Amino acid sequence: MKKVLLVLLGCLAGFASDVYSQTIHIRQSTESPRIAYAAKKLKKALSESGYTLTDGKAAYEINLVLKTDTSGSEAYSITPAARTITVTGSDENGLLYGCLALGEDLRNGTTLPTIKARQEKANLPFRAIKFNLPWDTYRHSQALDQHWETCRDLRFWEAFLDMMAQNRFNALTLWNLHPFPFMIRPTNFPEASPFTNQELADWQALYRGIFRLAKERGIDTYLVNWNIYVSPEFAKAHQVALDNLDHKIHATGDTSAIIKRYTRECVTQVLNEYPDLTGLGFTHGEAMWGMTPRQRQDWFSETILAGMRQASRKAKLIHRVPLSANLALGGSTSVDTEQLTRNAMEELDFLDGPIWAEIKFNWSHAFSSPKLIKVHGGKLNDTYFTPMPKNYKIAWMARNEDFFCLRWGVPGFIREHIATNTQPYVGGYFVGSECYIPAKDYFTKPGLAVDWQYAFERQWLFYKLWGRLLYDPATPDAVFKAEFTHRYGKGAEPLLEASALAGTTPLRLASYFDFTWDFTLYSEGFMALNNKSMDFISVDRQISQPPADGDYVSVLEYVKTVAKGGSFGKNRITPPDLIRQLEQDCQKALALVKPVKTPGSALQQEVADVKAWAHLGLYFAQKLRGAVALQTYRIQGDEKNKALAIRHLQNALKQWDEVIALTRPLYNDMPLVHFSESDDTRRFHWGNLRPAVANDIDIARNASVTLTN
Predict the structure, then answer these.
(1) Distance (Å, rounded) from C-alpha 97 to C-alpha 94?
(2) pLDDT digits (tens, 9 = 90+) for 442-474
(3) How far apart are CA 46 and CA 41, in angstroms?
(4) What digits encode the pLDDT tens for the residues 275-313?
(5) Could you give the 3-state DSSP secondary structure of residue 573?
(6) Which end of the chain is more exposed for a tag (fewer CB within 10 A), N or C?
């Protein structure tokens, strides 16, 4: 009996020892809302990993240390020692990121005794999300209106801002036409407010909540608007801007003295009443039709900038570069306009600098080539860069108007983009869309097994890649592979490579098909603007459209040159070259995901999207084959060429049918802003485009020989 008791006591002692070995004490050297948030996230990761938090003696101690030094902005280090781990931040954001990094290691199965020493610092100081609000929207569309309820819920913003912090984004930019009536009742213009006291209080609670949550997470907040807008109530009360009561985006600018005063005072009041708001931004458009670049810049100086100067505190500024160098708003550039804008920015001395000078990278379609081909309006000169600016930094706008529902993630493209475009005068990037709000999940068919609530959660890889690589481009692929494993288990490991391969499809289409503004291309649907309607890209359009990237050779140029016995240099990408690239990458992507078992799980949708991109790529390859054969027939004749074109376009239709088969069980027919210009009742789905895809075959069948080249 005594022996049994001794054994039992020994077992209990061993159990107690095991429990004790899992106890953790977190010690903080400073206290603030941001550090409290960092500690909370770390505690959650520890608890989920089986550790017990205690305020007394513990087996392990984690020290959170804020140490301002020269290690770099937003930098952290993790230093393990005997039963102690020290997380050091060069500032509050650095300490937050260190806690998140340690928590990520724990979630991925690393135990405290095996934590490795490491350190990171921010590569770019400005890492922003562009988020268009669904009220008083830039474009009027049911596709945007549907997010109203979701975006008025602080629970959505808490989840979205958590995601931003986890992925090292540090700026949230909120865009709509005229934000002020939702935030204040102007002291000297109360008639401008459309809301009752309770309605306005609800709006104010929302905005204050967003700004507070963002500040806790180390995220700056900006209001960015377009100009010149006033509330309809203000317009009617003062008999101004009556031609734009419904807030059309292209309108004549009303520069009445009372509008200037109203705008200036609203800016000052908003900054004074919302101390957690970091700054403002403005646009040289849209309701400024008929104004010269000088008149537009002067208007900002007399209104928004004057209002910022009069506020009780300094604020930061996003100064978008002009979208037009003339009286119109369609887009143009000139050295004179660039010099005017540069001079204006360099003279501002009352802001919390630097100014972020926003420039659209490749107009509305950054997901094309990593080379800067054009900006809004055309060619960008070196005016903003030479000599080196003193008062501002360039922030590239990486607009995505090309894919909203299919998941996307190509780490190599983002790394190349950053490496190519982060010269010393560059401060960072915006990432986001004009025609898509990542809030309500309106894509997923009801009843499917999902592990998300909001749209941005479906697209977790997109945000994780951009945020983490903007913070540190050396972040290895292992970080992103580990996230797949954490979410779906070891069977999901091939998904990152497969996504990277299949996700080149829209990049190659957008590099091959020239574009300008939002609706001129929608890569996900192989659609482009056709006069005033957004339509499927026919084989004829694919033949005639010049490439955006001059390295690519159009079908028209290729067939004409080959027919004359010519050739292309090794740096040019001909249709056969592009076909080989598409087929090689897309077939490999399909092979990688083939063994992944998905029935009835959220992983099914991840795999289906990779397959959909892959089959769209294979569709593109077959279409290019058909286009080359069709154009060859038209200028050279020979019925074999015509038959070849028909066969390739039939094969293209088979690939499109694979896309339909994959997406029809998973995706609703979806509202799309790109359709709203012609018919807001239209809905997007690949199945709805099948007749247009099949029509390419009829185009080939009905083709005739032109015998011209």
Answers:
(1) 5
(2) 999 999 989 999 999 999 999 999 999 999 999
(3) 9
(4) 999 999 999 988 999 999 999 999 999 999 999 999 999
(5) strand
(6) N
